Amino acid sequence: MVLGHGIYILGINGFKKTQSLIAYLLSVTAAIIAFIPWLIVIYQGKTSGRIQRLDWITEATSLPAFIGKWLLNITRIFLDWVIINENTSIKSIIWLIPLLWH
């Protein structure tokens, strides 16, 4: 996303030094500085074995599981029920979709 915004700003203004380019570079720099400590903590925790829950990153996700998690996250905007978790089937979440339009 950062790269896309950078390409957009360069495409609009060219390679000229404009206020939007300076603001973009400052915001990217601030974001990198803000998130470096978290990346260090995650890296150190993963290499030392303290973080176990990042194993899902390397696993492939099937389309039905992806859609189920996506629907779960959307419904949690409105309803955060404990009985609905990542192991809940899509069929049991589908009935919540009409609630989004009311």
Q: Overview of this structure, please?
A:
The mean pLDDT is 77. The chain has 102 residues and is mainly α. The chain has four helices and no strands. Helices cover 62% and strands 0% of the residues. It is extended, with a radius of gyration of 20 Å. The chain has helices at residues 2-13, 19-48, 63-78, 90-94. Helix 1 (2-13) packs antiparallel against helix 2.
Helix and strand arrangement:
Elements (H helix, E strand, L loop, with lengths): L1 H12 L5 H30 L14 H16 L11 H5 L8
- SS elements, strand count: 0
Helix-strand sequence: HHHH
What fraction of residues sit in β-strands?
under 5%
- pLDDT < 50 stretches: none
Number of helices: 4
Radius of gyration: 20 Å
Shape: extended
Which structural class do you get from the secondary structure elements? mainly alpha
Integer average pLDDT: 77
How does the major sheet shape up?
Answer: none
- End-to-end gap: 32 Å
* Helix percentage range: 55-70%
